[in-house]
Design a protein that fits this description.
heterotetramer; A alpha+beta (513); B mainly alpha (319); C mainly alpha (273); D alpha/beta (519); B: mainly alpha; globular; D: 519 residues; alpha/beta; six-stranded mixed beta sheet
Chain lengths: 513, 319, 273, 519
Amino acid sequence: MKKRLFGLFLSALLTMAVLGGCTDGTVEPSVDHSSKEPTYGGSVVVGIQQDFDSLDPHKATAAGTKEVLFNIFEGLVKPDENGNLMNAIASDYTVSEDGLRYTFTLRENVKFHNGNVVTAEDVKYSLERASGLLDGTPLVSTLRTVTKVDIIDEQTVQVTVGSANAELIYGFVAAIIPAGSGEDATADPVGTGPFSYVSYKPQEGMIVQKFADYWQTGLPYLDEVNFKIVNSPDSALLELQGKTIDVYAYLTDSQAGLLQNDYQVLASASNVVQALYLNNAVAPLDDVRVRRAICYALDRDEINLFVGGGKGTLLSAGMLPTLKDYYVDLNDIYGTTDNQQKAKDLLTEAGYPDGFDLEIAIPSNYEFHMQTGEVIVEQLKAVGINATIQGYEWNSWLEQVYNGRQFEATISGVTSDMTPGYLLTRFQTDSPKNFINFSSPEYDDIFKRAENTMDLKLKADYYAQAQKILCDLAGSAFIQAPANQTAISKKLAGYKFYPVYVQDMSTVYFVEE
Amino acid sequence: MKYLGKKLFTLVMTLFLVSVIAFLSFEIIPGDVVSSILGTEATPEREAQLREELGLNDPPVVRYVNWATGVLKGDLGVSYRYSKNMNEMMPVAELVGDKLPVTLWLAAFSLIMIIAVSIPLGVMWAKSNNRFLDAALNVVTQTTMAIPSFFLGIMVTYIFGILLKWFAPGGYVSYEKDPWGFAGYLLFPALSIALPKIAMTARFLRNSMLKEMQSDYVRTAYSKGATKRKVMYGHVLRNAMIPVITFLGMIIAEIVAGSIVVEQVFGLPGVGRLLISSISTRDFPVVEILILYIAFVIIFVYFLIDILYRVVDPRISEK
Amino acid sequence: MTKRTFPKWNTYTWVGLLMTGLVLLLGIVGLFWTPYSTTQMNAAEIFQGPSLRHLFGTDNFGRDVFSRVMEGLSATILISTVVVLFAAGAGIVIGAFTGYFGGVLDEIVMRITDAVNAFPSILLTLVILSVLGSGRQNLILSLSIVFVPSFVRIVRGEFIRLRDADYIKRARLMGVGRVRILFVHILPNIFSVFWVSVMIGFNNAILAESGLSYLGIGVQAPDATLGNMLADAQGYLQVAPWYVLAPGLTIVWLVLGFSLLSEGIRIGGAQDD
Amino acid sequence: MIKIENLTVAFDGADAVKNVSLELLDGEILGVVGESGSGKSVTALTLMGLLNEEAVVKEGRVIFDGEVIREGGKPLNKALYRKYQGEKMSMIFQEPMTSLNPTQRVGRQVEEMLKLHREMKPAERKDMVLQTFQSVGLKNAEAVYDSFPHQLSGGMRQRVMIAMAVILNPRLIVADEPTTALDVSVQNQIIELLREINKTHNNTMLFITHDLNLAKRLCHRVVVMRDGEVVESGTAEEIFDHPREEYTKRLIEAVPSRMNRKKREIVRVNPVIEVRDLSVFYKEGDNSLFTAGKMRQVVYDANFAIYPGESLGLVGESGCGKSSLSKAILGINQNINGQVEQYTVRPQMIFQDPYGSLNPAKTVGWLLQEPLKAAARMDKTKAMSKSQMEEAAYDMLHKVGMKDKYFHRTPAQLSGGQRQRISIAQALITHPGFIVADEPVSALDVTIQAQIMELMQKLQEEMKVAYLFISHDINVVYQMCDRIMVMKEGRIVEIGDTEEVFTNPQNSYTKDILYLSQA
């Protein structure tokens, strides 16, 4: 596996390493502990794949860091396992009619790990720091529209934003930290979460311990959690077999099979959109017929079978089924198996009856994408397209493909956060993240309308239209949301799957033998 | 004194060259630490802020000079990538100081294994007149040397860890926490490093001894009525060890400087792994120091070998 | 005592020749023909164990491992051969001049090779591969550069040894040109030593390539080399051991064959003296 | 009494010693004389039980004081032999440098004899070693005791070897060419030491040598061997004064002596080379950027000239500057003061070692044509066609007395004498007027030596070439040279007509070496 080298530094684009929420009951624990009583105490080792990019909750961007910091830091609101927001440090909040003013009421007596009670000062400081009001640089980009944070009284904070956005509330998951701690050079991470920070060692991991004064009484169960950085998927398997880790969330399909008897192995859909992303600005991919031909040529059932054991969820546009209010199933448009005749016809029509050469750039540290690439090359060969794989080191891929847009096609995964707009915003013509150079005035128009409405129904409708346009114009050849398989020790129960990228250890407990 | 002066000059020259090459490499390779940290979530503001924080806006020469003067003053700088706490980055000295013992212990363990096994084995092999044993050892050592290092590591893990359960793969414990557990775990990676080197050293020693046994002074020793044993240990071994010392030196340099692959296979948080990960995250301060460390170790070991050579071989010091 | 021009043949030479000959043949045949397609995937045949139909079983895409090993062999052999040719060629030229003439040039070249030697080869490889992009040619180029210093050392040592030989002194007295002395008079005399180091270099190239593949900076799929296959397969060690063992043991076999061959040549050469 | 009876020893199936019988009487020095390959060393090593394992004793017996210690067809009884080795028989080897362990102090190496065979306290052992050192003429015994072999001179090393051999006062001492690697004056001292030991300790000595003069001087009885067989044996007088066998006669005749010398008239005008006030220096230390090499002077103010067709002999001990002088003349060493004027085409050189002076990768034909090619490249007027060159090469091959079939052979397929012929041919093919011959016959057997000297003289007549003939053997020089030049410590101490120098030496050093080399 090539994951060895760079496996530790994956950024938000992680695919296999993504914990996805599956709220529609696809999670079927192989051992049912629900009848058993939770016990308190104990220590658990959780295998994680990435090293920490920062211990500052506002500066951390890597999904692998956020999944752990979730246990230490909390925002005014926080996500639950159903993809909804629940109140955390805020006990309640209201949004003004025009969507420009958010008023939060703070929960009483929420304590930081240092023993201090969270005050309105702390909240104001944290939000100003995250939104860039302190030094001009927004650390949490969703909060960039925040213009003012006011303390109404000791328990109330009002946030004013420059433009209305129904999805902005998701930005308030940003961590609340003690006032001034962002400038204190020697500060250890201090938050209000169920676990408090103990130590961190590069390349080894982070240890956290139970926070006794956690505001949700009864939580957490465990005394200590060791988030241990695992070197590679292969060593993760060995460590699971050697019982040196208790929880690991990023199994490959063959590993899942091996562990079936010794662990509770749970599958869930991830929050990643894997696609053969096509650069819409270069010939011959600038011709919509060619892009459609590629979509017809792919046999996504086969890809799913080969690289994910058939457990992935097939996609046809850039939206995830986990965001169920906004997702439309468009798999019928190009079909889930190959339609070679249609593909060839389209190619002929576009003036490429004999196909063409296509270079697929893939970050080579992602075994999953590399393998997908191997399958796709074979499938494209059948319609005459001579595709080759060019592996890139992750950083080079970022620079040349993602940021530089110097590529023809690439296989990658885009991770979603909780906001439905996140996945679709990048396909606007002038979006800085529009690395595929997708350009459709119609799409831009629809997306703008969706963004500006506070009516969620209407918003969902606009998003559905946008997905249809994206699919119809074959902006890229979308493939799947890969399945995510997690191994959990049989001694543990209470592990919850989230639709976003977190490892919530607060509800995990040892069962009585 | 002059000898020392010359050696010192060579050391400094080489270290300087190495640091420049490393610096230039970082200028050339695509991708930088900023994009590495921010990944796909980069915004222009954050990028600019981070660039400013890390001092990446200065021209390359200024950055190199700043870095070099810092190092000369004993300030190894801070990592671009690893945090010490919420707001501070990890000082390179602390980071490397934390990882170095792992690598050094690993090297020490393997070296002990290599010396403890290969020297008796080489002597026994050279002494033996048994054709079958000779051929068997030849094939076994050749085969050991033909196994790619990571494949050997995987096999060791699989056989000793999964099948025999003599150790828990990945169950590395820090040397501060549990020295015995640490040592017990290190045995197996050390074994994977040592196996091919044992084969190489034993072969080398054996060949060296066979060559020495053709020497005139061996005949002289026999003419005194000495037994083969006395001749071997009293005369041949020391002379045969002279070239072996150089050979061992190369091996020491190799394992102290880079047990990269084995650290990777066994999940040891040593400097080899740190180097690889720091290269891919473009963590320049860490990479520079590690490369200088490796270069220093290599040159220093060769220097020690040179001195040892003078001790063992009286002919050299006279020249 | 008469001296043979060719080293004496012994068991090592024969066994080594047999072993390398077999895999070389497989590799060469693999360039033109394999029993099955090396890329065609077959969902029905995933992870079939070794059988008469699939000698080394099948992989995670249902491809025939034996066919892929054949293809990988030819790629590995090609890469290693080119690397060694390049490195040895450069080693001869640089080593010859520095060894024979010595002086400031020698001092500079030795300092540079010292620096390259003291420089982690993986970093060097990564730098070159990052600058040029990954791929076969660039891997060859970077490995070659990493391998040059060792050849320079060997060649240089031999030229230093021979530059004061009586017959070279005589050649100088005759007025033979310097370049001719280097390459016509001295060079043929270092071949026995050189040949052995070429073989060792060949083996090191194979092992280095597989090591780089393991670290993820080697040749990329689907361009199979043995090292690359081994690195890809190791995740399936417990599911499909044959998939790992096939390329792994082929590497061992190939390297062992060359080691035995060079051992045979070395012993044969020693017996001649 | 020590006896070797009907000994046959084979290597690789070929008999190296055939049916040899020797008898050593108590107190005598028995010389075994022969050229290389005569089996003399193999006989001695068999006697000592030191043959390596490839050798097979097919037949015969070795009897030591009535006990059979080695018998044909049986393997070596190592345990039995160890009782004799060191205690009752010991050996002195040819190369004291390599025969001593380079990494052990010599005192300890001699002491090992005592450790192996005597129960003694360490202090007693050391005393005894020091005493023995003094008895073999090592003056500063304490210092020698603590020295490593490389810190001693050649003569001292051989004395250490002798001390080792005599310390247990064995019945038999085998000396295998003990003086060959040494300078004449030291050689003489060692011979005298051996003679003295033989007299005082009255032990038996087997003295192996290729040098007939030495045998004549030292031995009571002499055995002549050839191709593994004994040719003739008898008392020293019988053998040297009344040889019966043809081979013995030839051997004795081949030894250069002051008898057979052709006199020639040389016209000394227009020298081929003229040397004026030549001083030669050597760089010390390694050639690096950091150490500006120190210069050591090795030749002081040499003045001489050599004329066409003349042979000038250069005599001196090792390290006296002979080789440095010759290299300076040829321009190999450029660190000189003074002048060297050449009046001929590129002078060539013939070296001592016939194995090292021909490129082993090439054929004889190529080696002979290479000088022509080189000459043509430097001077276009000398360009020759391929066939012309080949013809010249064959011609030269014939001139040095070799047949056409050797044209395509490599040096490895030639004997030492043949190689030296090719060397000469290669040096002469471009018709240089002057050649430096550095010990050209020293490494050769006497009979071959005579042939080569004859060849060189013949070619000198034919080609009018001048030789600077360097040798440590003054008798060889006497036979070869018209004039003689004696060097000591970098200075030419005497130069003059050969007859005159020999009959009436002016310098005391010249007198010494003339005396020492008298048989």
